[in-house]
Design brief:
- This is Calcineurin B homologous protein 3.
- Keywords: Calcium, Cell membrane, Cell projection, Cytoplasm, Differentiation, Lipoprotein, Membrane, Metal-binding, Myristate, Nucleus, Protein kinase inhibitor.
- Its main location: other.
- By secondary structure, the chain is mostly helical.
- The chain folds into two domains: about 120 residues, EF-hand (Recoverin, domain 1), CATH 1.10.238.10; about 100 residues, EF-hand (Recoverin, domain 1).
- About 50% of the residues lie in helices and about 5% in strands.
- It contains nine helices and four strands.
- The protein has a two-stranded antiparallel ribbon.
- Helix 4 packs across helix 6.
- The radius of gyration is 19 Å and the shape is globular.
């Protein structure tokens, strides 16, 4: 029993070093993971798709896919997984970890960049390093058309205009016949330069408040 407990603590310490979570936070996240997976070793898209709080989220698909995107799991790979284990789940969750009072300026900047990269990956669905008009249009269409207040064609037109505005900002000397290939990560950083990320990137649909890390308090 003692040896088994020691192995668990050692594994959690390794995960704490990789993610920045405390041992208590990892333990609480593991409890939520077990609820989501029905105590199985891995989680599938179906496990996340069945979360009631996600049912009416206009970008539900993008949120779920983000968990299975290898780029968000701190791997030097691209592509997606069919299922993920707890360590991969934790790696994705670490993007939502807020800074602490001990977090240095350099660490905060690195965390901000990771959060921006996570958001960028959600839009860059083909892993080519650029958010194209087609990808951008799809997200805007889903956000607007599912609100019930606007039709698909209107949503598509809004996406097109928004992309043109981005293009005029990032490439101010574009000619009228030039083709804008899309938003690079550098462009994306510039667009969101003034956005405060720490208070905006939470995962409340998992019954995990990443602002306070009250991970063990669930409503389901």
């Amino acid at each position: 029993m003692g040896a088994s407990q020691t192995r668990v603590e050692h594994k959690y310490q390794d995960l704490a070093d990789k993610t920045g979570f405390s041992l208590e936070q990892i333990n609480n996240l593991h409890k939520r993971y077990q609820q989501l997976s029905d105590n199985e070793e891995t989680i599938s898209r179906d496990n996340l798709d069945s979360i009631p709080a996600l049912a009416n989220n206009p970008i539900r698909k993008q949120i779920i896919e983000a968990f299975f995107d290898k780029r968000n799991q701190h791997q030097d790979e691209v592509g997606s997984c069919d299922e993920i284990g707890f360590e991969q789940f934790l790696m994705v969750m670490s993007h939502f970890r807020p800074p602490t009072l001990k977090t240095t300026v350099e660490e905060k900047e690195a965390m901000r960049k990771e959060k921006l990269r996570f958001l960028f990956n959600m839009h860059d669905t083909d892993n080519d390093g650029t958010i194209t008009l087609v990808e951008y249009r799809k997200v805007v269409e889903e956000l607007l058309s599912k609100s019930g207040d606007i039709g698909l064609e209107a949503a598509r037109a809004i996406a097109d205009v928004a992309m043109l505005e981005v293009a005029s900002t990032n490439v101010p000397h574009m000619g009228p016949d030039d083709f804008y290939e899309g938003i690079t990560f550098e462009h994306f950083e510039e667009i969101l330069k003034g956005l405060e990320m720490e208070t905006r990137m939470h995962i409340r649909f998992l019954d995990v408040n990443t602002a306070t890390m009250a991970c063990g308090k669930t409503t389901s």
